[in-house]
Structures are given as structure tokens and as C-alpha cells.
Automatic annotation (TrEMBL):
It comes from the Bacteria. Pfam families: ABG_transport. InterPro entries: AbgT. It comes from Salinicoccus bachuensis. The chain crosses the membrane at residues 26-51, 72-100, 120-153, 160-180, 210-232, 259-279, 299-318, 339-358, 378-398, 405-421, 436-454, 466-490. Keywords: Membrane, Transmembrane, Transmembrane helix. The lineage of its organism: Bacteria, Bacillati, Bacillota, Bacilli, Bacillales. This is AbgT family transporter.
Length: 507
């Protein structure tokens, strides 16, 4: 007799079926671009207008099916693509981070951090390493959880608890980091494009959420470690499964020396930057000697790019992975090759946002949406919580963080800017909703991989086992993050250099 499904299981089944019917993200954005064309035609028929919030100019909704609109579509297509802010930011970051990953530096650092962790810190180290592992992009999701399971197994603890802790950090905490990562560049670029609908002088930089991300790392490490030790592991009980084969831990020759060479190189590099900043009349300071804003902040992406290139070179040369400039070029090429799918997606995203902007539909939605929220008095922190819940639910249908933000940013960033919220603050709210719910969405591409790792230790593990294991982390991370956001919101703490909840507080 078939086991009767509960409400939650049925709900997940429905979400999975609906999500599977959605087209590929590239096709989705091509469809949205065509929808913008038709929508502009309909709005123009009714003579819709909107007053620009900055200039007060009365703007007509421009018809993309008109002669002028068709000219714009054809003549701007390439510029929309090549001028799309996230494209250059992300590819530049991946040149550096990709080199450090391809030569094995990030892999070595992750492995050693977990394998050499003191027993009393093991749980927290696994979560912490998973969170920081997003520097290696999706590689952390594949590397950290099985390492966590293996180490837990070797010290006599339940391996599924170690796997869950590692996956919670890498999967649900991926948006937090102590360093500036590719995710920061990607989201900041989309945010800059979106805010241009209202004001093209505003820029969201990759460091605008940095302070919040740093605090998030330690908060989520504590929450994830405590949850694992006090709830997940006791619930799993004593592990009585069969022994498993140990993973291959073979290292590159001179890997330890290479790591220290990379560490020394990185410290010296940033020390030089600090010295240059401290010099009188430093070229990295702004007018009047300010740090915020300054050429240092504006040039943070190239500085980070150079940092990762230098430490990647140091590790690669010492370990023999880089023997000539040709090797360096090859690894960088491979890292960009990994971004091919993203580059294709950007072409479609860029057209959608450009049409939304040119037609003035973006301004119309932002102004009228903000006025509606004010009229119904749905503003303040309650509005932000509502937006976080909305994005969390959207995550069940669209798992790609960049694709989802490309849809939401042109709507919510201009709208919330009209309510006074800084675009970087709206981006923070998006990030915590998108990140924390990732691990329980049926369409998350790494669910199958993690399930396979689980079955190494428990052959009877299924989707139900997976959900019951990861759901507590998703809920705990989301609640903890909302509380942290409330602390920043109500105390006026900066989310990054010169970035606060309200745009008017920017220096």
C-alpha cells in the first residue's frame, strides 16, 4: 500500500512540477523582453504617463513597437550587452578568483581548514569553511559537505551531521563572506543597472554590503554550529552504518610551501595598499583626504583582481602548476570558459532591463508602486520582511540567484528608492532571502549531488531525509538574518563603506 503523502510533501511536489515547467533562464528573459514590448504597446494606447521623481518631467510610456522603438531595439542590442555593468565586473573578478581556484589554492585552503580543525571547534569550522567557500563559487557546495561528513565520521560523530553543517554553510550561507567575492560583483552590477531607471548617477559597488556580510559570517557560523550540535546531531542519534572509503587527500607537491607563499604575498600586497592610502595626498584618497568616497573604493574590483592573481601565481609557481605565462593564461581562460552560460544569459537579461528602462515602464512601476505602498501605509521594516518572504517563495520557482535578481531589481530597487531606501539595502534584503532558502528548494541543482553523498552513509536516504535534515538550517538562517537586518536597520549601522538603510545618509 502506497504511503499517504503529508501536506508539506504534496506542496513540495506541486512546487517541483511548476518549477520544472518554467523555461530555461535564457528563454525566460527573452520571453520577458517580448512581454515588455507588448506591455509598452498597451500602456501607450492608453496614453499612460508618469512624473520623473528626480526632474519632475512628465514622461510618456514609449511604445517599443513604434518606429522609434524598433530603431532602439536594433541599434541598442549590442550596446545593451557589452555595456551591461555586471558583465565586466564578474568576468574581471573571475580572472583572479578563477586562477586561484584552478591552481588548487582555494581547494587546499578549504581542505586544510576542515581537516586540521580542533575537535571542539570542528562543527563551527565546517560551517565557517562552507560559508567562506563561495570564493570558489559552486565548487564549495561539492567539496565542503563530503569533507565535513568524512571528518565527522573519522572522529566518531554522525557523518550526516557533518554533511548537513557543510552544506548549510556552502548552500544557505553562500552570500556571506569575509572577502569580496564574485557574487558581490554580480549583484552590484545588476543593482546599478536597475537604479539607473530612476537615477543613472547612483552606483552600487561590490563592497556596499561588505560590513553586513562580515557580521553574517560569524552569526551564521554560530547559528549553524549550535543547531548542528544541539538539534541535528542528537536527532540523528548514534551512527551505526558501514564504514566508507576515505576520500583521496593526495596533495600537490610543495602545497604547504605554496600556501605560505600565497599568504605572505597577499599580506604584503595589502600592506602596500594601506601604506599608499596613508601617504599625504595619496592618489587613492578622495577630495579632502576622504576614504569614502575615493578612488580606492571606486577601484576596489581591480585591486581585488590583482590580489587573487598574485596569490594564485605565488601558489602556482611554488607547486609547479604554473611554469610559464602560458600556464597562467590557460587557467584564466578555463575560468572564463566556466562562465559561458552566464555570458549567454546576460545577453537576454540586458535586453529585458534596457526595454524596461527605455519604455519608461520601470519609472511608472516604481513611482506608482511606491505611492500605493504609502497610501496603504505598508512601509518601514514590515515592508522589508514582506519583501524577504516574497523572494523566499520566488526561490522555489527560480533557483538562479542572478536570474531572480535580474527580474526583481528593476522593480523593487527603483520602488524602494522612492521610499527612501538605499539600493544596496534592498540588495541585502534580497540576498538573505535568496541564500537561506536555497537548500530546501526542490529545483536546487545540487540537491541530487548532496543526496548522493548522503546515500554513501545511509543507503535508505531519500528526498524526505534531505528536506528534514536541511529545513532547520534554512529556517534558522532566515530568522537569524532577519534579526541581524533589524539590528542594522534600527541602529543605523552601515552595510558597507558609506552605505546605510536610507539613501539620504550616503556621504
Amino acid at each position: 500500500m502506497a504511503k499517504k503523502k503529508g501536506f508539506f510533501t504534496k506542496a513540495l511536489d506541486v512546487i517541483e512540477r511548476v518549477g520544472n515547467k518554467l523555461p530555461d533562464p535564457f528563454v525566460l528573459f527573452i520571453g520577458l523582453a517580448f512581454f515588455m514590448i507588448l506591455l509598452s504597446f498597451v500602456f501607450s494606447l492608453f496614453g499612460a504617463t508618469v512624473a520623473h521623481p528626480g526632474t519632475g518631467e512628465e514622461l510618456q510610456i514609449r511604445n517599443l513597437l513604434s518606429g522609434e522603438g524598433l530603431q532602439f531595439i536594433l541599434t541598442s542590442m549590442l550596446d545593451n550587452f557589452t555595456g551591461f555593468a555586471p558583465l565586466g565586473l564578474v568576468l574581471a573578478m573571475m580572472l583572479g578568483i578563477g586562477l586561484a581556484e584552478k591552481v588548487g589554492l582555494l581547494d587546499y585552503a578549504i581542505r586544510k581548514t576542515i581537516l586540521k580543525s580542533p575537535p571542539f571547534l570542528l562543527t563551527y569550522t565546517v560551517v565557517f569553511t562552507g560559508i567562506l567557500g563561495n570564493l570558489a563559487s559552486d565548487a564549495a557546495v561539492v567539496l565542503v559537505p563530503p569533507l565535513g561528513a568524512l571528518v565527522f565520521y573519522k572522529v566518531g560523530r554522525h557523518p550526516l551531521a557533518g554533511l548537513a553543517a557543510g552544506f548549510a554553510g556552502a548552500g544557505a550561507g553562500f552570500t556571506a563572506n569575509l572577502f569580496i567575492a564574485g557574487t558581490d560583483a554580480l549583484l552590484a552590477g545588476i543593482s546599478t543597472e536597475a537604479v539607473a531607471i530612476i537615477d543613472d548617477t547612483i552606483t552600487v559597488t561590490p563592497v556596499d554590503n561588505w560590513y553586513f556580510n562580515i557580521v553574517s559570517v560569524f552569526l551564521l557560523t554560530f547559528v549553524g554550529g549550535l543547531l548542528t550540535s544541539k538539534f541535528v546531531e542528537p536527532r540523528l542519534g548514534e551512527y551505526k552504518g558501514e564504514a566508507v572509503e576515505e576520500e583521496n587527500t593526495e596533495e600537490l607537491p610543495n602545497a604547504k610551501k605554496g600556501f605560505f607563499a600565497a599568504l605572505i604575498t597577499g599580506v604584503l600586497y595589502w600592506a602596500i595598499i594601506v601604506v599608499v592610502i596613508m601617504l599625504p595626498d595619496s592618489p587613492l584618497r578622495g577630495e579632502g583626504g576622504t576614504i569614502i568616497p575615493s578612488p580606492f573604493i571606486d577601484g576596489i574590483v581591480p585591486l581585488i583582481l590583482i590580489f587573487f592573481v598574485l596569490i594564485g601565481l605565488a601558489f602556482g609557481i611554488v607547486t609547479g602548476k604554473i611554469k610559464s605565462g602560458k600556464d597562467m593564461s590557460r587557467y584564466m581562460t578555463e575560468s572564463i570558459s566556466d562562465m559561458a552560460g552566464y555570458i549567454v544569459l546576460v545577453f537576454a537579461i540586458a535586453q529585458f532591463i534596457a526595454y524596461f528602462n527605455w519604455s519608461n515602464l520601470g519609472t511608472w512601476v516604481a513611482v506608482n508602486g511606491a505611492e500605493f505602498l504609502q497610501e496603504v501605509e505598508f512601509t518601514g521594516f514590515g515592508l522589508i520582511i514582506g519583501y524577504i518572504i516574497f523572494t523566499s517563495l520566488m526561490n522555489f520557482l527560480i533557483t538562479s540567484g542572478s536570474a531572480k535578481w535580474a527580474i526583481e531589481a528593476p522593480i523593487f530597487i527603483p520602488m524602494f528608492l522612492q521610499l527612501g531606501y538605499d539600493p544596496a539595502f534592498t540588495q541585502v534584503a534580497y540576498r538573505i532571502a535568496d541564500s537561506s532558502v536555497n537548500i530546501i528548494t526542490p529545483l536546487f541543482p545540487y540537491m541530487v549531488i548532496i543526496l548522493a553523498f548522503m546515500q554513501r552513509y545511509d543507503k535508505n536516504a531519500s528526498i524526505g531525509t534531505y528536506i528534514s535534515l536541511m529545513l532547520p538550517y534554512s529556517i534558522a538562517f532566515l530568522i537569524a538574518w532577519i534579526i541581524l537586518l533589524a539590528v542594522f536597520y534600527f541602529t543605523g549601522l552601515p552595510y558597507g563603506p558609506g552605505v546605510y538603510t536610507f539613501f539620504e545618509d550616503r556621504p
